[in-house]
Known about the structure:
Layout: E1 4-9, H1 13-23, E2 31-37, H2 40-49, E3 54-57, H3 66-76, E4 81-86, H4 91-100, E5 104-107, H5 112-123, E6 128-129, H6 143-146, H7 157-163, H8 166-175, H9 181-188, H10 192-206, H11 211-220
Parallel strand pairs: 1-2, 1-3, 3-4, 4-5, 5-6
Helix pairs in contact: 3-4, 8-10, 9-10
Amino acid sequence: MSGIRTVILDGHYLVAQGVAELLNPTIDISLDILKIFTNAEEFKRFIRMEEVDLVIMEIALPDEDGLKLIPELRKADRELKILVLSSYSASKFVKIALQSGADGYLCKSNNANDLVEGIIEVVNNRTFVGEGLYITPPPNSKKVAKMMGTNGSYNDRFLIQKRLTKREQEILHLITEAKNNKEIATELFISDQTVGVHRKNIMRKLGVKNTVNLIKFAIEYQLV
């Protein structure tokens, strides 16, 4: 009898391989690990051709925002079970993932028993949230502050990208192409003043003081 047809999606192959090896001998539930993927594009091609019951996935992927991938997967296959296994524990990510269609969410800091429990729960059509995680911030939570660097800027690419709005990311990309406010305004069909406001907001959020440092920051963290 075949098990639950499962794929693992994580940008770090060794992590994904470790999860697969951890689950293979599990006696609580029968899994058939079909394949490991390290990028969303290859994963999406696979599931268009193969029947998959469960995906265990990270939200921080090298080629796509996993939080945006979840609703795409849910729309394509209402029966697919989606269990997020992430490095990120912030309540906003848990909430977005579940609202977008994920069936469960746990952290890589959780233990193996939590992972097995999460799989059992989601394949039985129940929502699962790992121990220590919250859909809304607990009272007086300082978790978000702990994710900030000492200079007030995020020190992780995924968190940086989630900090900026879609429009700010567009403008940042154009800034790194050495375009001035007028050129950016023309390309995006907005006013010079609006571009200026966005530029100031981007620098404030990333903790830089001038355009030169902003470009260096964007390149260093591969934001463009």
